[in-house]
């Protein structure tokens, strides 16, 4: 991309004027404002009129906004409230963190690393990119995900700061305050965090653990009303590790089609499925339901810190039309999303990551899941559900057989105190009495953790739920 076309595109996108300093922005940080805004600000708040007319305050009273107060990440809210004091005699094993890089056993591929190095050294990616991302990088994503069943071009791709921002933009472009979105239960907590902060309601549709966490379609349909702005589907799933069959996805699409409901498909774990399983991207199965598919580099390429995500706009019947696309573009103009260095590396990453890298990651995840599933299947009071993809395994707690504990939060808290093993209680996903284990940990650590979980359960398990007299013996 030449620097000339770069400048032209910046202007065409209505982005910030270079060199314009907004006097109100602390530290003069560019905020993506247009020159116009600066002009208006100085007209409306000129120093001569402001001081007298508006100063009614007698004392300091600075409070967080309603939006800040309403913004709540349930993982932090619940985990930070837990008493997590490990047993000093046992090294802590955290099976709770959904970051595949923390143990150092799953580095990204060297080609990914090299691509970023080259982008840095080229010195071509130090400036602002268009708010939706460089044309070339968007083209690379479009080519990577293009398929005859769901064609994609660069114009259908918006680059974002991680998949999280992609999800945020999609919810915001489709929903007004008072609308509702349908989200999975158990499900990734970010959807609710984003929605509630902007006054959008959430309705939780049930997933069925006995059917490999498929969607309860009847329940889902019963929740749809005229205020429903979109259906959020996570496939493969965090926290469940489930991967839906073609038939099941078709069933969901049929409902969406019947009720004219657009879908936000969170496919950050797309293709991250165990050898032997098949991932079907939702858009390849429908020719009428408009779908915003969100993804990114974080999980499949094992670089969550690089903050590269994307929205793929699938809209073959022109339901979204230009208005939704324009809406997305406008939302990206508030804060430029994707880091330009990673954008510069993106084409090379998508072209050059070898198949064996993807395969070795998913083989590892499968092997580790099988170890965990096998070990915990024979632990009294626990019911693990074997995953087919992503990086998690859900484990049910037969809480009636653990009279010493009230719920999953209590249970996992005590497991830290006694065994120094921390599993995430699924109350953080609005779904009690399970815990989620991250299967990216090294194999020896997984084995050790499972042995300690077994010890813990053997100690606290009571065959008959009413028999609570031996408590704390
Ligand atoms: C990790 C994750 C994301 C967020 O991805 P980032 O690119 O790190 O923002 C989104 N959705 C699900 C289901 C995830 O597990």
TrEMBL record:
For this protein, the Enzyme Commission number is 2.6.1.5
The protein's GO terms of the molecular function aspect are:
L-tyrosine-2-oxoglutarate transaminase activity; pyridoxal phosphate binding
Q: Which SUPFAM superfamilies does this UniProt record tie to the protein? A: PLP-dependent transferases (SSF53383)
Q: Which InterPro entries match?
A: Aminotransferase_I/II_large, NHTrfase_class1_PyrdxlP-BS, PyrdxlP-dep_Trfase, PyrdxlP-dep_Trfase_major, PyrdxlP-dep_Trfase_small, TyrNic_aminoTrfase, Tyrosine_aminoTrfase
In which pathway does this enzyme or protein participate? Amino-acid degradation; L-phenylalanine degradation; acetoacetate and fumarate from L-phenylalanine: step 2/6
Q: An example of a Gene Ontology BP annotation on this entry?
A: L-phenylalanine catabolic process
Limits of the Aminotransferase class I/classII large domain:
92-453
Question: What cofactor is needed?
Answer: pyridoxal 5'-phosphate
Q: Which segments carry the region annotation Disordered?
A: 23-63
Keywords attached to this entry: Aminotransferase, Phenylalanine catabolism, Pyridoxal phosphate, Transferase, Tyrosine catabolism
Q: Per its UniProt record, what CDD domains does this chain match?
A: AAT_like (cd00609)
Q: List residues, modification N6-(pyridoxal phosphate)lysine.
A: 299
State the family it belongs to.
Answer: Belongs to the class-I pyridoxal-phosphate-dependent aminotransferase family.
- Output this protein's name: Tyrosine aminotransferase
- Annotated gene: Tat
